[in-house]
Structures are given as C-alpha cells and as structure tokens.
Amino acid sequence: MKTATKDGAASGARPLPDRDTCLELLETMALIRRFEEEAGRQYQRAKAGGFLHLASGEEATIVGTTSVMRPEDYLIGTYRTHGHAIARGTDPKNVMAELFGREDGTSRGRGGSMHIFDRERRFMGGYGIVGGNLPLAAGLGLSCDYTDSDEVTVCMFGDGASNTGNFGETMNLAALWSLPVVFILENNLYGMGTAVERHSAVTDFSKKAEGLGVPGVRADGMDVLAMRETVTEHLRIAREDRKPTLVEAFTYRYRGHSAADPEVYRTKEEVEEWRRKDPIEAFADRLEAEGVLTNGEREAIRERVDTQVREAVEFADASPEPSLDSLYDNLYVVGDQVPGWYAVDERAPQPFRGEHERERLEGEAKKLAEAGAAYAGQAAQTGHREGEEAAARDEDAAFDERGEGEPDEDAPDPGAGGPESEDGAG
C-alpha cells in the first residue's frame, strides 16, 4: 500500500478511476471549498451564528473517504463537518440553512455549524466536544453487530482528540469487541493552535492505538486517490474481518481553528507552502494533463458550484426562523419520565414546566413579551419621576442640615388640622 510522507507528497502516482468518477470527485471537492468560502463570508456578515470551523484544504481527505463508502455505512464527525455532510449527499441548501439557524436546516436550526446531522444519509452528526464522537462510533459499530449487518462505521476526528480519555477507552473497546469501525484521524498538524509535537508525545498517530489493539497506517490526506485506495482496504477489513483499524490522514486547513482564530501560532509562509499542494487544483491539473478534463469543463464546474452555493444562501435567507413556541421541542427528557423539571419557562406571571409551554401560553408568548416591553417602558418613565422627587428630597435634607431650612414662624403647622384634613394628617 502506498503511503504519504509528512510533507504530504504521495509516494507514487495512482491510476485514475473512470472519467465519470474523476469528474464527480473533482466537483464534490470544488463544491465543498466554495461552500466553505461562502460560509466564512456569511459568518462575517453575522448571518451564521455561533461558532464556525472551516475545513478548506481538507477536501481530499473528506471526499476520498466518503466516495468509497456504501450508502448504508455510518459516518460520524466532530465540529468541522460541513463538507462531510455535503459529500454524503446532503443538500448544501439545508446545510447553509442550519448555519443560519433556520427551520430548513439539517437540525431545524437548533444545532448550527457544529451539529450538522442527516439521518437519512447516515451522517450521524458533528459534535462540539473534542473526542465526543469516538464512543458514539463504537456504539454504532456495536449496533451493527447486534443486527448482524455488514454496515461499517467511519469515525473522523482531529489529532487533538487522540489525547482525550475517550480515545483510549474507545480503541480498547473497539478492539476488545472486534467492532467494524474505521477511525480516520485528520492530522492537520495542529490541535486548535498547538502544534502536534507540543501536544502529543507520540507524533506518529498511526501507532497511537496499536497498544490498545487497533493497528494503523498513514495516508496522504491531500491526495483524493490515495485516500480512496487506503480507506477502501480498511472498509474491507471492517466489513469482512470485523476488525477496527485507524488511518492517519496527513492534511492541512488553510484557515484557522475557527473563524475567530488570529492564527499567531503559524507563519504565512507555512500556509502558502501547503496551498501549493492544494488537493483540488492538483487533481484538476492531473486530469487536464491526462486528457480527462478540458479547460472549458473545469470552468463549467466552477460556475456550477458557484451557482449552487449562491442558491444555498438565498434558500437559507428565505427559510423561516424557528417559532418561539417550539423552544422546548426535541429536548432529551420529556413529560413524566423524571420527577424534576427539565426546563422552567418564566415567560408567564407564574413559572411552569417547559414541556407545558403550549397549553400554558397557548401562543401568547409574543403578547406577553410585548406587554413586558410596554411595562418596562412605563416603569422607566415612573422611575425617572421618582428619581427626580428623590433628588429633590435629598436636596431639601442637605439644606436642612446646613441650618438653612428653619421653618417660618408664620407658616402653618404641618401637624395641625385644617380644612382638608379631618384627622389632623394634612
């Protein structure tokens, strides 16, 4: 099996698959790249909320892996997974709508960038917790054993996750129970902003799970064909031999850890060096050189993916925001399963259980909010008047303390009765 050197250079050119497959691989990678670029722009415009982690540069690792999976296989990732969902067939429109927090998103706008999910295509989600997807992948593999199916789970995660307790526990169980899982470690040389040699004592991640019974290999994550070749063999091992394995894919992200990352931990020269190995351009150049792709077709691909992404933005913009009365939908604990309250709704005069929202508010949440705003405005005016009166009283008190406020002998006694008071209280 051909492997990759650390600088991402493949140890030999692999034969091209058929023309249709080549063009599909190229267009899928180009679509993911264009989607990520637009997602970054929309985040800067405050259209996409929460956090945003981009995978620009890692397209060959993603597409090379997913392109050899069967539709019934499971894929699970972490929080850099826009491309993973798109590569599995999720419509970019729904992915963009999720970034926008809209109802037509993959999680109905509840998850955002880090929680893309598509059960129909067996993409079992991105997860915001580093390494949090590892034991879930083991659970998916175990379910395949229980159902006696030949489905395989592919679990993709970053190099930083290999330092978590979940990593060791999952590798141990996967090996102990012979689970059909292929672990793809996306080594982009940094765990957040920390270089691999500073966060891991073992920098050859392909060997990091061997002591727990999960053998590993290295692959060139910047070469889509290298990833296809390597992952194909490891899917076979999982499907036929029922054994877990690990693939360390050398790849690189051109953008920082997140959209808010100042990237002070690496140089511009390093990024530019990796850009010269761009997986999309390198593959397209080879296809042109070998007569599989014409320059006109290459430009047509660019235009098609650009149109798809622009339509995705328009779709997301037009998608409705989740209604206020759906705030407590799809929470984990519901009804009378537990004696306590899993959520408290305080949008009414008397707080009540979140699951009783609809029958208690009956669509009145907006009216209550408007009434509250009106009351706040009245209270502000009242507070202003009370503040003026209090200031006047303070001024009178200070005046009296200086001895300048002695009562006039001719003034009426405020304690005496008068025509306006029957009990002497003026």
Short description:
The chain has 426 residues and is an alpha/beta fold. It is built from 13 helices and 9 strands.
Account of the protein in words:
It contains 13 helices and nine strands. The strands form three sheets. It has a five-stranded parallel sheet with strand order 1-2-3-7-6, sandwiched between helices. It has one domain: Thiamin diphosphate (ThDP)-binding fold, Pyr/PP domains (Rossmann fold, 3-Layer(aba) Sandwich). With 426 residues, it is α/β, with parallel strands linked by helices. 39% of the residues are buried. The model is unreliable at 1-11 and 402-426 (pLDDT under 50). Strand 6 (216-220), helix 8 and strand 7 form a beta-alpha-beta unit.
CATH class descriptor:
Alpha Beta
Q: Do you know the CATH architecture?
A: 3-Layer(aba) Sandwich
Rg calc: 31 Å
Q: What kind of sheet is the major sheet?
A: 5 strands, parallel
**Strand adjacency order, main sheet:** 1-2-3-7-6
The parts where pLDDT drops under 50 for at least 5 residues are 1-11, 402-426
Shape: globular
User: Residue share in helices?
Assistant: 40-55%
Give the tally of structural domains.
1
Q: What is the CATH fold-level name?
A: Rossmann fold
Distance between the termini: 102 Å
On the 0 to 100 scale, the average pLDDT is 85
Provide the descriptors you would attach to this structure in a database record.
426 residues, Rossmann fold, 5-stranded parallel sheet, two-stranded antiparallel ribbon, disordered C terminus
